[in-house]
Amino acid sequence: MNVTRRAFTEDFTIYRASELKPRLLAAIGEGERIELDLAGVERMDSAGCQLLILAKREASAAGKTLAIVAHSPAVQSLIEFYNLAAWFGDPLVVSAE
Amino acid sequence: MDELKQVFLQESNEQLDALETLLLELENRPDDETTLNGIFRAAHTIKGAAGMVECAAVESFAHVVENVLDRLRNHEIAVTTKLAALMLGCTDHLRVLVANEAGVAQVTIEWIEGQSARLLTELGEYGPGGQVFATPKASESGVERIPSNRSGHNCWHISVRFGPDVLRQGMDPENFLRFLETLGNIQHMETLADVMPPAAEMDPELCYLGFEISLESSVDKQAIEDIFAFVRDECRLSILPPNSKVADYIELIESLPEDSLRLGEILVRVGALTADELAEGLRSQAVPAGAEPPETLQIGEILVAQQVVQPELVAAAVAKQAQVSEKKAQDAKLIRVPADKLDHLINLVGELVIAGAATSLLAHTRRDGELIESSSLLTRLVEEIRDASLQLRTVQIGETFNRFHRLVRDACKDLGKEVELVIGGGETELDKSIVEKIGDPLMHLVRNSLDHGIESPAVREAAGKDPRGTLTLNACHDAGNIVIEVADDGAGLNRDKILAKAIERGLVEPEAHLSDREVFDLIFAPGLSTADQVTNLSGRGVGMDVVRRNLQALRGTITVDSSAGHGTRLTLRLPLTLAIIDGFLVVSGNRSYVIPLDAVVECIERPASEHNRNYFNLRGQVLPSVCLRESFGLPGERPARESVVVVQYAGQRAGIVVDRLAGELQAVIKPLGAIFRHIQGIGGSTILGSGEVALILDISALIKISGQAEQRLIARPELRNA
């Protein structure tokens, strides 16, 4: 299977949202399975989270799979807070606390 | 202490007083809704005020108390004696917490924390579902509850769709929702992005997010709404209170942009509805409603129709508004004024009285008719201003009396006695400064009565009395004084025992013959206690002498009457005010003296036949008399005609022999310096219109002196003509 892996290190925030949207959509177009590595994302806000939702939705609509293979603490924290972990369906590291 | 804290301290104490009174009332009438609501409101106000000054300790404790009160109000738990006692304990503790916050507490932090923990554990028994409230951590505000198993029905349901522009405006939904967590426990949250358009149209800077949240919290709707205040106009917010009807949820579903079925599922997932309720609800909604268009709707109804508020909330809001406007009206009637401003005003009025008197005197010397007329009008107005400004400082004594309800109740519990407190004359007014100083002496007297005066129910029954004792607090005005009585129907003072104790302590000679009153007066001697057992209430032999000393400092007196088996009555007499009196000016040996006008009964000419005696004949009644000329050793010859001013004090009459009567005046009392404190018969001084200083006579002391002089003469008649 054609796997595309993309690593992002910039902030997933409203300031970068316009720039991130085309890159994410482009990534979806490149393979059957898209793996996002977000380990280097220091900050994420609702706009960033929204983009991930969009990406996941677009990928599913195109019959592809989008997976977040690595979460930074910021990403994980927000996804958990919004109770979207199950919806994304990606394995998350359960913190010890 | 900053100003805000000061106001907080004062207001909290007022609310705590109200809370205590209401709690005591509740014990007698456990079903009274008004009382319950009042209690809840008081606790709520304290919590709110504590929040305002960021006083976490008070706020969190009050919060727990409020939770229990809320359950009480909703009839989830019943009023019991134990609960009432616990609530009173909590009130006391809140008082300590408030005092601690204001930096005036007299206890250690450890003690407070221990007490908090103890009370919270006890309160826990009354928490929802018998749940125990966790002890709040010292630094944290708010109280943590141990999460119960999902109690969805107990949760607020919050449905919010953020407006598209919020992100651009720098407001992130996350912040609002995180803040929501501070109000309570988010049981469940569903994030919705259904309104997000296809990728091509999606603008990454617009917000397409919506949330369905189930929040477990005891806050009110306003608090939740406040969180969204910044985005209120931007977002679509519906808040359903706990236990909302299924129909309300169905309406919510229909009002939202997402697909009804999907939303229904979400609500089921969030825990707001069960699947069956949802199915049933949606079915019934499918039936078309009547086609009658609504006519003019009240704003409340419109809001309800638009899902902004719930009908029951509208009713609550209306009631709350009425309450608020009522409180505002009440507030408007009262103005808080610092006491020193009032004191300054009274001082000025005092000076005005003196200046007015000078003008009036001048007018009379000039014999200018018009000036006399205008100055007499001025005098009348000044008098009114004087009375009105003195009134500003007066308060009713009832408030002081009512505090004793609690004392009596607690003491009865401790001592195993039954005592009813009867209060009379609570509307009697007196100077605030006196009220403040009289609280402690009164408390001593009430405690004494409870502890030693009133017997235990068994003893009372054996003596043929009602097992329930009565303690009476009464106040009234009498001749420019206020009279306060503390009376009980207990065993009365034991004359022999007091006498024996006094002899044992060497206070009186064993062979002395004392009247009942003299014996009873011994209870005011330092170190005398007739109690066989020292209790934590009283009996240590300190107290009565302190009581008397405190009263004397206020120019007051205390007398005791008692009859064995029937009870004891303590009578306190205090001057109404400490500042200005109406006086009667007399002259002796060219010096002016002022007699308080309230004490003057009449003036007569002194018959020549009675010149050398210390008594005189008033229409057949023999009264002791005191000659100012002799008492004060004034120089000069006796005038041919002397006058007697008949005065009355505490039911006793006496005559004061003076050279000349000079009429009425208003006297601004200037206290005498410390050097003159021990001079008997002089109460103070005042400045006359002429600038001359006049001494104000202390009538009670003069009467005492004249009585003693007469007794000495009776004992040794040979002195009379010496």
UniProtKB/TrEMBL annotation, chain A:
CDD domains: STAS_anti-anti-sigma_factors
Pfam families: STAS_2
Transmembrane segments: none
UniProt domain STAS: residue ranges: 1-97
Coiled-coil intervals, chain numbering: none
SUPFAM superfamilies tied to this protein: SpoIIaa-like
InterPro entries per record: MlaB-like_STAS (IPR058548), MlaB_ABC_Transporter (IPR052746), STAS_dom (IPR002645), STAS_dom_sf (IPR036513)
Protein name: Anti-sigma factor antagonist
Organism for this UniProt entry: Zoogloea oleivorans
Automatic annotation (TrEMBL), chain B:
Residues in HPt domain copies: 1-101
Residue ranges of domain Histidine kinase in the record: 330-578
Catalytic activity: ATP + protein L-histidine = ADP + protein N-phospho-L-histidine
Keyword line: ATP-binding, Chemotaxis, Kinase, Nucleotide-binding, Phosphoprotein, Transferase, Two-component regulatory system
Modified residues (Phosphohistidine): 44
Class of the enzyme per the UniProt entry, highest EC level: transferase
GO BP annotations, alphabetical order: chemotaxis
MF terms (GO), sorted A to Z: ATP binding; phosphorelay sensor kinase activity
InterPro entries, alphabetized: Bact_Chemotaxis_CheA, CheA-like_dim, CheA-like_homodim_sf, CheW-like_dom_sf, CheW-lke_dom, HATPase_C_sf, HATPase_dom, His_kinase_dom
EC number: 2.7.13.3
GO cellular component, one term: cytoplasm
Annotated CheW-like domain residues: 570-708
SMART domains referenced in this protein's UniProt entry, alphabetically: CheW, H-kinase_dim, HATPase_c, HPT
Function: Involved in the transmission of sensory signals from the chemoreceptors to the flagellar motors. CheA is autophosphorylated; it can transfer its phosphate group to either CheB or CheY.
PANTHER family, per database record: CHEMOTAXIS PROTEIN CHEA, SENSOR HISTIDINE KINASE CHEA
Protein name in the entry: Chemotaxis protein CheA
UniProt organism field: Zoogloea oleivorans
Upper taxonomic lineage: Bacteria, Pseudomonadati, Pseudomonadota, Betaproteobacteria, Rhodocyclales
